[in-house]
Amino acid sequence: MLVVGNSTLNYVYIEPRSYRSSFRWVAKNSSSDVAIEKWKRDGVYIDKRGKLRTFHHKKLSRKRCGSLRGQGWKYGSGFVDGVFPVLSPIAQQILDFVQKEVDADRVWVSLNNLSPTHTTWDDLINVAVQLRLNKKWDPIVLLCEWILHRSSFQLDVMCFNLLIDAYGQKSLYKKAESTYLELLEARCVPTEDTYALLIKAYCTAGLKQKAEAVFAEMRKYGLPPSAVVYNAYIDGLMKGGKTQKAIEVFQRMKRDGCQLSTETYTLMINLYGKASKSYMALKLFDEMRSQKCKPNICTYTALVNAFAREGLCEKAEEIFEQLQEAGHEPDVYAYNALMEAYSRAGYPYGAAEVFSLLQHMGCEPDRASFNIMVDAYGRAGLYEDAESVFEEMKRLGITPTMKSHMLLLSAYSRVGNIAKCEDIVNQMHKSGLEPDTFVLNSMLNLYGRVGQIENMEKVLIAMEKGPYEADISTYNILINIYGRAGYFERMEELFQLLPAKNFTPDVVTWTSRLGAYSRKKLFTRCLEIFEEMIDAGCYPDGGTAKVLLSACSSEDQIEQVTTVIRTMHKDVKTVLPI
């Protein structure tokens, strides 16, 4: 039990803190090899164009609050995203307590002992906001429910908003809905953030119709939907994989005359980037600047990422330089995006240079930085370098995740090193990481590629019996391997099993099946399967066209296939319209 002022707060403990009073690093002069001690990082450097630039080494990445730290919570304005709380010693104790204690009654009994002052109120709200930053939804619910239903504090829209958000994140949309109704009964005025959070709750639960109904609710109260609300809807749709609907909402936002914000454009640039439509992302970026909407560091990073996904490292570097020219200091996310561009383009040493620059400029590489380097070396077949980065990550105290192991596995899988891949899977087990479907699919593919069909089938049996669920990719790998090996009966048997397994063949499935007959120049059989594919509603891609053409053994057959493909392309609509 701890006494705080005149009040008693049970089960709260103060943990000791320790820190270093200064930062010291040693550099070596390349010519004299003499150690040079520095107490500050250089704040000036010359870029590759010869321009003098400056940076502030104390600035942190966006994830670590950056220059916003110290502004605290913006009281009285509803829910504000992106503002970081500064916790008092008492608030820190409350935070530690509610994160450790899971019993609601014990939490509420302890909170009842707090004096109902303005200072206590500020502390409680700051704690709730910090919990949100930490994504601790259960403690937020406990804290806000106590404030709203058990404390003597006046009801405030901030608490309702935080509670709606927490319930939404937990996919408890009915509780989020009832909290909104409770807000109205309490005669609190909902803010645009209230509606934004309610929409996000519905999107998380996959309830698009209810999300649409929120717009009607806003109009009922004389509130025109703002960019904040539209952004929440677009974001929710994107996270639910409804990209086409998100594009439609964006277009509607424009038609309704809603002022597009920096966040709106950043969301849409991200959307097109993830869809490998970098040209559309750039078009939106240019439109944004023509509308005098100022891009922020997140916007630039999203655009760098868009080019990175397609391996367009020169374009990515161009945008990275624009980011600096706009006065932004690149953070670890921006550097990671540029590293990814060189990795995807097949330039591992280019990615390594960016990694070194990141460190020189005072940024601390995160787990993603190391994962990108493992992937960069692995893609280039430099598996020893990939493992060196992996081991360095562990040496620095960064725990490798499932993705880290998967990238190293992929590096050795590319060169067909079965023994090393099996060793990596065993390491995962020892680290307490259970291999997922993606890992087992990789092992399936590896065994199949090197002709170890028996081992491949053992992995399949383990997947069917164990806790690992096979997905459509599992069967695509098997169909491809059996087809390449000439086991047509086994291939067809697996294909016919897909409906019973609740899987729908995708373009990869059909193309892999086509490829088996194409290698034998069985043109008529290929056409039959192609017709089945179209009748099933699966649209062929470039890979399908190549496989069909490779089945041809005469000019007439080539002309026949070419005509069919051209006709289909005229009829199809683009997935992401310009």
Explain the layout of strands and helices.
Elements: E1 2-4, E2 7-9, E3 25-28, E4 35-38, E5 44-46, E6 52-54, H1 89-100, H2 104-112, H3 118-133, H4 137-149, H5 157-169, H6 173-185, H7 192-204, H8 208-220, H9 227-239, H10 243-255, H11 262-274, H12 278-290, H13 297-309, H14 313-325, H15 332-344, H16 348-360, H17 367-379, H18 383-395, H19 402-414, H20 418-430, H21 437-449, H22 453-465, H23 472-485, H24 488-497, H25 507-518, H26 523-535, H27 542-550, H28 555-571
Antiparallel strand pairs: 1-2, 3-4, 5-6
Helix pairs in contact: 1-3, 3-4, 3-5, 4-5, 5-6, 5-7, 6-7, 7-8, 7-9, 9-10, 9-11, 11-12, 11-13, 12-13, 13-14, 13-15, 14-15, 15-16, 15-17, 16-17, 17-18, 17-19, 18-19, 19-20, 19-21, 20-21, 21-22, 21-23, 23-24, 23-25, 25-26, 25-27
What does this structure look like?
This protein is mainly alpha-helical and 578 residues long. It contains 28 helices and 6 strands. The chain has helices at 89-100, 104-112, 118-133, 137-149, 157-169, 173-185, 192-204, 208-220, 227-239, 243-255, 262-274, 278-290, 297-309, 313-325, 332-344, 348-360, 367-379, 383-395, 402-414, 418-430, 437-449, 453-465, 472-485, 488-497, 507-518, 523-535, 542-550, 555-571, and strands at residues 2-4, 7-9, 25-28, 35-38, 44-46, 52-54. The strands form 3 sheets. Strands 1-2 form a two-stranded antiparallel sheet. A two-stranded antiparallel sheet has the order 3-4. Strand 1 and strand 2 form a beta hairpin. The termini are far apart. Mean pLDDT is 81; it is low at 1-48, 55-80 and 572-578.
